[in-house]
Amino acid sequence: MSTKIIDYAAVKEVENSPEKNTFLIDVRDTEEFQAGHIPTALNIPLKEFRETMLLSNDEWISVYGKEKPLLNDRMVIYCRSGRRSNLASLEAIELHYSWVENYAGSWIEYSSFLAAA
């Protein structure tokens, strides 16, 4: 199974989505996330991704304040430039998540639209 690549317009839709089964996940390090990120994104650094995705729902709620993604929930993953998000996307698929998308433009592209505004 391969990861679907999505663009800026699709990420904007996800960012503004009220759907509780849609998760926007930033896999950059915490310091990078704190310096700027897409609103509504959860920060799960790549080095912690597998362990975090294996948490129980109760543990997930205690950390993130919302339900853990179900295996068929939409998961959009991004990083700074697309490399780490690709690795995390493959990891999610390996963990049997079925609706995984990679925002390959990642933070570099997203932040360029912020600068242009």
From TrEMBL:
A Pfam family per the record: Rhodanese
GO-annotated molecular function: thiosulfate-cyanide sulfurtransferase activity
GO-annotated cellular components: mitochondrion
Domain Rhodanese: 18-115
InterPro entries recorded: Rhodanese-like_dom, Rhodanese-like_dom_sf
UniProt protein name: Rhodanese domain-containing protein
